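Thread: "does anyone have the structure for this chain?"

Original post by V.I.:
We have the sequence but no experimental structure in hand. Need at least a predicted one for the grant figures.
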Amino acid sequence: MDAGDTKMNVLFRAITYLVVACQLASCQPASQPTGTAITNVTVIDAVNGVRTNHTVVYDGDEIVSVSLGGAPVDVAEAIDGSGKYLIPGLWDFHVHLSYDERFTDDMPALFLSYGVTSVRDTGGLMHKMLPIVEKMRAADAVAPRVWFAGPLLDGNFVVYDGESRPEIGVRNATPDEARATIRELKDQGVDFIKIYEMVSPAVFEAMVETAQEFDLPVDSHVPLSMRAETAGPPVDSIEHLRNIELDCASNAPELHETRLELLKNADGVPGVELRSSLHDLQRLPAIAAYDEARCNRVMDGLTSTIQVPTLRLTALNLAPPFAKPDWNEALSRVRDDVREDWVTLAADASANPVDEYTEFGEWTRFLIGRMHQRGVPIGAGTDTPIYLAIPGYSLHAELEQLVASGLSPLETLRAATVRPAEFFGIEDDIGTVDPGKRADLVLLDANPLSNITNTRRISGVISKGRFYAPVELAAELGNMSE
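Reply from O.Q.:
Generated one for you, tokens below.
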């Protein structure tokens, strides 16, 4: 065979290989489309505003595109969003997953059934919290995303000590104890810390410094030993507006001196009684002595501290849940023993409203409106399941209270989406409907900007990239009545 024949054979074999390869390639099945598209939907979030006639595509736990129009897209599934409204998944920014163990197992599905796809647990003992968090964070869990603080970090006297109240607090009598506690909590994996009301100024300062050393966000009550203008600016969020009324009073220095004297607690009164007695003694007199100029100065120092007023609790008398037309349906979702207890509790609250709570509720609504006007950030949390707070359901009551306080519906959505993300520094991951964000979304049947109560009209919930119809989540509640 000469050289020419050899070259021809090589060329022939190469062509044969190419033909066979092409034939084999054509026999391979085409790649299957993935992802889900929600088409022709009105998209609403607190950063981008309103975007009509859009298509949102998510694939796994990521939003991959948000585009104008309803052009066909190559996805595994399409959901017709015509006439519907798509918002980011909601947060309940103040929950207690271990407070009432009758709720613990059902809380995750309850939250999701009301569009709550993220929660921040603000107080629970670690031996109870760690198994709960592990279960909720499991790959196949039907549960919101969860961030947790571990126990309430209290002072020498503990309010939630397991005696008259559930045990969710721990004692920190000295700065060294406080530092050691936070180091241990950091090692155990907490996402932030929660400072409670009975700490001393020295312990408070040690807690804030140690948390900042470990890059842990700080949530706090205003300690009874301190004033809001001092305790507010160093922390990242404050709960319930409690004790801020003292700093807004014209006689704030005198009220505070009286409080410091009583906090010496020479008689060793239990923490819960001591705290309650100080609130009862000074709350309404402080509100009566409201000084606008002084309060403005206090608020102007809080523009970097998210306020979580839990109005559904503090202003409950102004909009009691048991007076709402959907209360009985919501109550039917909880366990029989809880339902029986709460029917009795609601009847008593209806028959015997406490005037002090009404007055404080009116003041907290007023103060939230003023804070919002002066640029203080507001977050939406409920303290569920404390005092008639059905998990998930209570978040919508909170949104209604925020609107009643002066926030617009869009600003209220910010309180339940963007503000919590800002607390944890995860705005790039969650809180708006944008490409690259996590796939936590709520599909509504009506416009929440027309009426904030429309956040209750849920057509579907997307949590971590999985779509749930309301009926599916109801089934997930399982055997609650057993």
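V.I.: this helps a lot. The chain has one domain: 89-431.
O.Q.: and The longest helix spans residues 3-27.
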